[in-house]
Amino acid sequence: MKTNIQIIQSLKSVRPIVATTVYDSVMAQLADQSDIDLLLVGDSVGTTLLGFETTINVTLEMMLHHTSAVSRAQTKALIVSDLPYGYSHDAFEHIFEACRKLIQAGASAVKIEGGSPIAPTIKRLVDSGIPVLGHIGLLPQQIKNLGKYRKFGKTEAEAEALMQDANTLEDAGCFALIAEMVSETVAKEISEMTKIPLIGIGSGVHCDGQILVSNDLLGLTTKTLPSFVHSFSNLSQNVIQSFQEYKKAVIERK
Question: Which listed residue (61, 180, 184, 252) is catalytic?
Answer without folding.
Answer: 180
